[in-house]
From TrEMBL:
A Pfam family hit: SpoVG
Function summary: Could be involved in septation.
Classification lineage: Bacteria, Bacillati, Bacillota, Clostridia, Lachnospirales
Protein's UniProt name: Putative septation protein SpoVG
Organism of provenance: Fusicatenibacter saccharivorans
PANTHER family: SEPTATION PROTEIN SPOVG-RELATED
Example GO BP: division septum assembly
Amino acid sequence: MNITDVRVRKVTKEGKMKAVVSITIDDEFVVHDIKVIEGEKGLFIAMPSRKATDGEYRDIAHPINSGTREKIQTIILKQYEQAMAEAEAEEAAAEA
């Protein structure tokens, strides 16, 4: 499995959710609404979920094993950090 595209949309309001991400797998399958969240131990991802009738949230799509989750999270957070650095550079250039 190769993640062939990552699209990061920054969340402008304050809070723990920092961005919403879409990934494309093998140029054939897209997963939307992966959230980048600021936790106590740093950034992590939350897969798309839906609130069940019992009030619990359940993932709609998710990796089967922790190795795959780690691979996806590493790629997404790398792209998120790059997008934030580019946004800061653009803001600095606009202020200059």
